[in-house]
Amino acid sequence: MRRLVTLLPIRSARRRGAQLTPPQPRPRGHQRLESLDETARRELAEETGVEAGSLHLEQVGLYSAPDRDPRTPRVITCAYLAIAPNLPSPRAGSDARTARWSPVAETRELRLAFDHNQILADAVELARDQLQFRAIAPAFCQREFTIAELREVFEAVWGVSLDKPNFHRKVTDSPGFLVPTGRKRPTGNGRPATLYRAGPATALVPPMMRPSAPAS
């Protein structure tokens, strides 16, 4: 069963008056003489050990409220969503005590630092929204995957159960979305499953609309 997870670096708590800095839900870092995308990939690799060079990366947004970080007069954050099929054991960065993958559903119960609950919620909603219109779902899978594995991606991100025949028809009818590899994989339940890879399409035609609000 697939689950939507986020990286949760746990940084050493630092006392500020009577306050302790809560956990922060993502790798973070400062920009060098490089693009924002390059910074995001570098920081993800340095802080977690995840190979970020070929990952699908989406900019979530800029967060610039003057009072978002009480420790300093002004901090502007550019948040990114990274999609990865493999999740190796994360390696804590230089400013983190440890790091772990945490199911998104569980992080909703945590009080994260500053406005990081909102950043995480925005990133999850971006992933849910983009699955409807853009051909990004294969980025959650291995290079070759079955329709069942692809369906699990939609179900995990959206938090719903999907009708198997209807899903199969929609994804295979979308022009350029999937390409059959000509290979099959034993499933243990009857016929082997056909393997597919991502096609050249960047958009889903027609869109794969989310059937209902995701589970909370």
TrEMBL record:
Residues 1-126 form the Nudix hydrolase domain. Gene3D superfamilies: Nucleoside Triphosphate Pyrophosphohydrolase (3.90.79.10), Winged helix-like DNA-binding domain superfamily/Winged helix DNA-binding domain (1.10.10.10). It comes from Candidatus Protofrankia californiensis. InterPro entries: NUDIX_hydrolase-like_dom_sf (IPR015797), NUDIX_hydrolase_dom (IPR000086), WH-like_DNA-bd_sf (IPR036388), WH_DNA-bd_sf (IPR036390), WHD_NrtR (IPR054105). The keyword Hydrolase applies. One of its GO terms (molecular function) is hydrolase activity. Pfam families: NUDIX, WHD_NrtR. This is NUDIX hydrolase. Residues 12-33 are annotated as: Disordered. Keywords: Hydrolase.
